[in-house]
C-alpha cells in the first residue's frame, strides 16, 4: 500500500490537474524532436517533479517508469573513493548533487561526459515514431550545486547538446549562475491555489470512498480549504495531512482539528516563551529546546524561518520590522557559518532585546 | 548489405537532423572574423595577424555573450583550416579538469610538441603559422596555483605555442599572467549590432514575430547576444509547438512580447506595480501577506529585485536621497541572497526596509 501522494500522482501530462498552459507547453515541446534544456523552478509541493516525469513519459513512453538504482563510485582528485546513487531508466537518469557534498564538480564532469559521449543507440521502441537521440539527465535541487559544478556544466551543455538534455529542478533561481540560466528554458511553476488543492482533495476523497459526518458538499469543501491553507498551499503536505486525518477516524468529523507536526508545536512554544518573558533564564531554557530540535534533524534554517513567522503573527505591528531585519541577518549568518546553534540562539536573544 | 548510396543518404539525413537539433547559438556561431558582431577594434588587430601570421599571447575579457570564445575559435579556424585545426589547437574549459596537475602534464606536453608540417593543400588556402594555440576558456575559474604553474610554461615554449585566455573578470587572472598577454576588452554589444544579428538569425530561421519583439528581447538580455538568441529560439519553439498541437484553435502564429517575457522569466509589470503600491502603503501586515503571495507564485527573488531596482531608481518622482537608501537596501538583500539565504525572509526584510525610507 502506498501513500496517497504516490498513489494519486499523475503519470501522464493529460492527467495533470492545474497550470494547464504550462502542461500544454511541456506537451508541445515533447511532441517535437527539438527539446531544450529545462530549468524548472517553483515552491515545494507545486508539482515540479510530477510534471517533469509526466513530460518524460510523453517523450519516451512507459519505459521511463522502469527505474533502477545504480551505485557509482568516483575517485576524487585527492584519491578518496566516493559513492553515490544514481536513479536511472533506459532513457534518463536522475542525480541529487547534495549527496556528493563538495565533490559535486568531479561527479558532474565525469558522469555527464560519460553519458554525453555515447549516443543513444536504440530509439525504435518509442511511440509515435518520433526519434529522440538524447538521454535526459535530471538534476534535483539544482540550487545546491556549487559554483564550480555549475561552471563545469556550461560548456558541457553546449558541447554535447545533441546527446544530452538537462532538466534541472530547483526551488529558486537565485543560486543559479547566469550562464546556466541563459542556456536553459525557464519554466516557472507557481503553487496551486487553495481552491485547486481542495478540488484535488475532493477527488481523492471520492476515489477512496471516505465517509464524512455530513454529506453536504459545501461543508466538506470548508474542511478541504482549511487543510489547504494549513499546509501553506503545498499539495504534497496537504495530501499527507488529509491522509492522516482520515486514518485517525473512520468517519471524518468536519470539526477535527488538524494535527500540527510535533516540531511545529515546539517552535510555537519557543515563540510564546520569547514573547512572554525576556530573561536570561528563559534563554537557557530555549537553548535546550533548540538542541533537541537539531538533534532530531530539523534543519536550522527551517527552525529559524518558522520561529520568525510565528513571532510575526503574534507580536505588535511596530516590532515587525525589527524582527524581520534581525531574522534576515541571522538567516544570512546561518548560511555562511557552520555551527547553527550559535545563530539560532543569537536570533532568540536579539529578538528578546527587540521585544522588551 | 546496405548499398553505398543508401548509406550516404542515411548519413545525410542524420547530419540534417543533427543540425536541426543544435541550438541556434552554436549554429550561428561566427565562422570567420568578419562575422563577429561589434568588437571592431579587436577584429581589426586580429585580422592583421592573419596576414603577418604573428600572434602574441592573448587575454580576452568582457561580459558574457559578447563573442570572446567565438572570436578565438573563428580566428583559429581561419589560421589553420579544418584539417590542421585538430592537431594545432587545444581547447580547455571549466568543464575539463584543470587543476595544477593538468597544467603540469597535459598543457605542458601539448605546448612542448613541435609543430607538424601542414600539407601542401592547407598551405595554399590558409596561413598555417608555425605555432600551436592553447585556448583556456573561462580562465577565471582556474585556481591561482594552476595559473602560477602556467607562467613559466608560457615563456619557455613561446616559440611553438601561443596561449589565449578567455575570461569574464580580468581581476581573477593573476598579474604575472596578465602581463604576459596582450589584452583585448570585449565590450557589450551595441543595440544596433545585436539587433542586426538577431534579425539575421530570425530571417534564416524564418521566424515571424510582432513588431516590438526583437527590441524586447534585447532589453531583457542586456547586451548578451547568446541570451538573446536563446530567448528567441525558446520562444519560437514554444510558439510553433503550441499552434501545432491545437490546430482547431487558430492562435496568431507570430511571437508576441508576452511569450518573450515568459521565456525570459521576467516578472510582469503589473506585479511589480502591485508590489510598489503594497510597499507604499507602509502597512506591515499587508506587506507580509503580499510577500507570501509572491513567494507562492514562485518568482525568482533576484529577478524581482532587479526589476524592482529599475522601477524604483528610474522613477524621477523620488528624491536622490531616497533612491540612495533604496539602492543600499537592495544591494544588501542581493548580497544575502547570493549567500544562499531564504528568499522569503530576505524579500520580506527588503520590502519592510524600503517601506520605511520611501
Description:
The complex is a heterodimer of chains A (356) and B (358). With 356 residues, chain A is an alpha/beta fold. Chain A has 3 domains: 185 residues, 3-Layer(aba) Sandwich (Rossmann fold), CATH 3.40.50; 59 residues, Orthogonal Bundle (Helicase, Ruva Protein, domain 3); 94 residues, Up-down Bundle (Zinc Finger, Delta Prime, domain 3). Chain A is 51% helix and 12% strand. Chain A is built from 14 helices and 9 strands. In chain A, the strands form 2 sheets. Chain A has a 7-stranded mixed sheet with strand order 2-3-4-5-6-1-7, with helices on both faces. In chain A, helix 10 crosses helix 12. Chain A is globular, with a radius of gyration of 24 Å. The model of chain A has no long low-confidence stretch (mean pLDDT 81). By secondary structure, chain B is an alpha/beta fold. Chain B has 3 domains: 155 residues, 3-Layer(aba) Sandwich (Rossmann fold); 73 residues, Helicase, Ruva Protein, domain 3; 89 residues, Zinc Finger, Delta Prime, domain 3 (Up-down Bundle), CATH 1.20.272. Helices cover 61% and strands 7% of the residues of chain B. Chain B contains 17 helices and 5 strands. A 5-stranded parallel sheet of chain B has the order 2-3-4-1-5. In chain B, strand 3, helix 7 and strand 4 form a beta-alpha-beta unit. In chain B, helix 3 runs parallel beside helix 4 and helix 15 runs antiparallel to helix 16. About 2% of the residues of chain B have low confidence. At the A-B interface, helix 2, helix 5, helix 6, strand 7 and helix 12 of A face helix 1, helix 11, helix 14, helix 15 and helix 16 of B.
Keywords:
heterodimer, A: 356 residues, alpha/beta, Rossmann fold, Helicase, Ruva Protein, domain 3, Zinc Finger, Delta Prime, domain 3, 3 domains, 7-stranded mixed sheet, two-stranded parallel ribbon, 12% strand, globular, B: 358 residues, 5-stranded parallel sheet, 5 strands
Amino acid at each position: 500500500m502506498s501513500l496517497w501522494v504516490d498513489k494519486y500522482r499523475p503519470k501522464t501530462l493529460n492527467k495533470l490537474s492545474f497550470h494547464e498552459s504550462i502542461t500544454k507547453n511541456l506537451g508541445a515541446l515533447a511532441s517535437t524532436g527539438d527539446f531544450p534544456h529545462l530549468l524548472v523552478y517553483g515552491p515545494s509541493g507545486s508539482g515540479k517533479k510530477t510534471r517533469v516525469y509526466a513530460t518524460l513519459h510523453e517523450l519516451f513512453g512507459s519505459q521511463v517508469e522502469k527505474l533502477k538504482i545504480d551505485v557509482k563510485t568516483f575517485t576524487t582528485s585527492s584519491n578518496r573513493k566516493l559513492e553515490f546513487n544514481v536513479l536511472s531508466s533506459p532513457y534518463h537518469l536522475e542525480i541529487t548533487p547534495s549527496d556528493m557534498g563538495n565533490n559535486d564538480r568531479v561527479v558532474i564532469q565525469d558522469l555527464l561526459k560519460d553519458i554525453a559521449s555515447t549516443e543513444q543507440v536504440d530509439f525504435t521502441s518509442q511511440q509515435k515514431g518520433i526519434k529522440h537521440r538524447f538521454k535526459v539527465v535530471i538534476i534535483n535541487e539544482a540550487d545546491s550545486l556549487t559554483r564550480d559544478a555549475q561552471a563545469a556544466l556550461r560548456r558541457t551543455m553546449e558541447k554535447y547538446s545533441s546527446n544530452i538534455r538537462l532538466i534541472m529542478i530547483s526551488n529558486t533561481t537565485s543560486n543559479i549562475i547566469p550562464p546556466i540560466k541563459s542556456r536553459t528554458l525557464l519554466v516557472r511553476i507557481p503553487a496551486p491555489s487553495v481552491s485547486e488543492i481542495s478540488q484535488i482533495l475532493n477527488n481523492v476523497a471520492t476515489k477512496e470512498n471516505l465517509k464524512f459526518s455530513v454529506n453536504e458538499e459545501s461543508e466538506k469543501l470548508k474542511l478541504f480549504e482549511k487543510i489547504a491553507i494549513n499546509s501553506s498551499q503545498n499539495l504534497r503536505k496537504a495530501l499527507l495531512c488529509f491522509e492522516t486525518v482520515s486514518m485517525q477516524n473512520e468517519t471524518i468529523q468536519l470539526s477535527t482539528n488538524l494535527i500540527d507536526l510535533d516540531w511545529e508545536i515546539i517552535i510555537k512554544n519557543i515563540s510564546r516563551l520569547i514573547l512572554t518573558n525576556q530573561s536570561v533564564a528563559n534563554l537557557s531554557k530555549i537553548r535546550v529546546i533548540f538542541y533537541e530540535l537539531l538533534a532530531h534533524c530539523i534543519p536550522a534554517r527551517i527552525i529559524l524561518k518558522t520561529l520568525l513567522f510565528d513571532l510575526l503573527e503574534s507580536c505588535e505591528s511596530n516590532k515587525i520590522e525589527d524582527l524581520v531585519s534581525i531574522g534576515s541577518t541571522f538567516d544570512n549568518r546561518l548560511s555562511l557559518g557552520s555551527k547553527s546553534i550559535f545563530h539560532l540562539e543569537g536570533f532568540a536573544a536579539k529578538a528578546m532585546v527587540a521585544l522588551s | 548489405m546496405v548499398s553505398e548510396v543508401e548509406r550516404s543518404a542515411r548519413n545525410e539525413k542524420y547530419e540534417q537532423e543533427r543540425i536541426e537539433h543544435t541550438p541556434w547559438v552554436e549554429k550561428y556561431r561566427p565562422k570567420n572574423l568578419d562575422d563577429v558582431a561589434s568588437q571592431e577594434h579587436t577584429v581589426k588587430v586580429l585580422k592583421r595577424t592573419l596576414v603577418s601570421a604573428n600572434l602574441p599571447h592573448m587575454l580576452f575579457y568582457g561580459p558574457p555573450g559578447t563573442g570572446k570564445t567565438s572570436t578565438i575559435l573563428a580566428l583559429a579556424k581561419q589560421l589553420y583550416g579544418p584539417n590542421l585545426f585538430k592537431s594545432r589547437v587545444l581547447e580547455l574549459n571549466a568543464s575539463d579538469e584543470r587543476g595544477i596537475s593538468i597544467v603540469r602534464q597535459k598543457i605542458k606536453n601539448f605546448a612542448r610538441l613541435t609543430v607538424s608540417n601542414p600539407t601542401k593543400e592547407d598551405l595554399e588556402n590558409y596561413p598555417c603559422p608555425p605555432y600551436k594555440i592553447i585556448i583556456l576558456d573561462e580562465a577565471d575559474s582556474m585556481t591561482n596555483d594552476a595559473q602560477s604553474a602556467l607562467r613559466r610554461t608560457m615563456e619557455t615554449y613561446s616559440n611553438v605555442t601561443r596561449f589565449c585566455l578567455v575570461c569574464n573578470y580580468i581581476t581573477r587572472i593573476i598579474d604575472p599572467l596578465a602581463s604576459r598577454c596582450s589584452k583585448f576588452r570585449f565590450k557589450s554589444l551595441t543595440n544596433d549590432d545585436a539587433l542586426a544579428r538577431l534579425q539575421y538569425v530570425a530571417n534564416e530561421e524564418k521566424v515571424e514575430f510582432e513588431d516590438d519583439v526583437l527590441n524586447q528581447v534585447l532589453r531583457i538580455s542586456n547586451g548578451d547576444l547568446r541570451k538573446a538568441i536563446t530567448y528567441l529560439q525558446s520562444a519560437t519553439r514554444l510558439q510553433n509547438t503550441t499552434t501545432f498541437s491545437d490546430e482547431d484553435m487558430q492562435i496568431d502564429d507570430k511571437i508576441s512580447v508576452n511569450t518573450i517575457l515568459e521565456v525570459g522569466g521576467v516578472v510582469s509589470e503589473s506585479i511589480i506595480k502591485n508590489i510598489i503600491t503594497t510597499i507604499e502603503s507602509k502597512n506591515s501586515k499587508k506587506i507580509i501577506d503580499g510577500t507570501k503571495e509572491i513567494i507562492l507564485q514562485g518568482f525568482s527573488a533576484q529577478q524581482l529585485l532587479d526589476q524592482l531596482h529599475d522601477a524604483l531608481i528610474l522613477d524621477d518622482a523620488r528624491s536622490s536621497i531616497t533612491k540612495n537608501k533604496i539602492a543600499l537596501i537592495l544591494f544588501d538583500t542581493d548580497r544575502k541572497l547570493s549567500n544562499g539565504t531564504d528568499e522569503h525572509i530576505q524579500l520580506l526584510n527588503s520590502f519592510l526596509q524600503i517601506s520605511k525610507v520611501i
